[in-house]
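Milestone M4 deliverable, item 7.
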Amino acid sequence: MKNQIENLFLLVLFLLIFLFSRSVLVAEDSDTLWTKNFMGSCYVSNALFSPDDKSIYVSTTEKFYELETETGKIIREIPEIRGMARYLNKKQFFISYDLKKYTYPEMQFVKNYDYIKNLASLKDYDFNFDASIVGYVNSAPYPETGGYILHIFDAAADTLIYKLSSKENYKYFEFSPDGANYATISVDLGEISNPDDDITYLRIWDFKTNEQMHITEVIGYGNIKYSPDGQYLAYYNSTHIFLYNTQTWQLLDTFNFDKPSEISSFNFSNDSKFIYYCGSFNKINKYQIDTKKLIYQFNPEWTYKNINFSNNDNNFVTTTTYRVILFNNNITTVDDNKVNILTLTPNPVKDTIEINGHEYPFKNISIFDINGNIVFTKSDFLVSSQTIRMDLSFLIHGTYFIKIKTIDNEFSAKFIKE
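Output delivered:
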């Protein structure tokens, strides 16, 4: 009996240590920086970087959290805010999930967009570049609208500009970065008695005239996004992402996961050169637009819900049902046979570190802190240099990334300074 009690005590102690250690993790996998676990307390819906990249704002069903980017530690909690959905007016304000406007960084309430009467029926919405115009899609009775109707409002005057009402079920809506046009995904419901007749369309509209500029029949429907530079538009259905050129509206490419999986979300990098996408029980995939190739898969494999980038693109944050995970985005693609090229000894390091590139001579070395700032660079190497020793005693303790450029490749690795 005594042994059973002792064994039970040890098991409970082990579980407590395990759960506590899971609250903030520095992941063993080189792609991740830390994981914040909200297990058992609340459901995580979204995470966004602050404009200075020093904080990450996390929206949960319980309250609104601000985390420190470097460590993942909670800085403050604001229970009265129902999460951050997006920034407005060059990030001077933000909009919450219940469509209330707040100042940033003071988090002071400004106004409620109360002309959107029924939040429960809200399907999708977007603001133009200066937040003066808002478009939103919400449900209405079929005989009047076809299911979901699109409204365009003057956000300052709270007046309706126009609405799209027809036998089409508007699903998703997105302004172009310059606000000159907007895109919709809609379903032509056809005959009510025959759902097989339903056809899905991608439509591009001129904002000033409300005239249709382009229409394309598409397969299935999902969220749509413009690239930050406005050159591309992408949308996804449950299994594929479709990429278009916004000048010609030519379909440039269609891509998906390399194994069967539903796509849950995607996003363009801030420089508009890459698309990152995630799904059910899969890695986060990095797709390069100009080469039309999948160039990297971020570990670990999980069911991720969204992807948002730091303003300098050095990191990105994603969420699962109960977790917030910060990823290192300074990893570059390498050949499959050259994955573990760099050897850093010791790691963690106190003073001097040895870097071994094996058969790849160094051309340039850069060291970045966790926020993507360059803290050290060196380029005066002998042509044959493949191993060097460096004094890093000047660095403060923390997590860093080293990027090595050779003649033909770039390689990255993570190390910790004690």
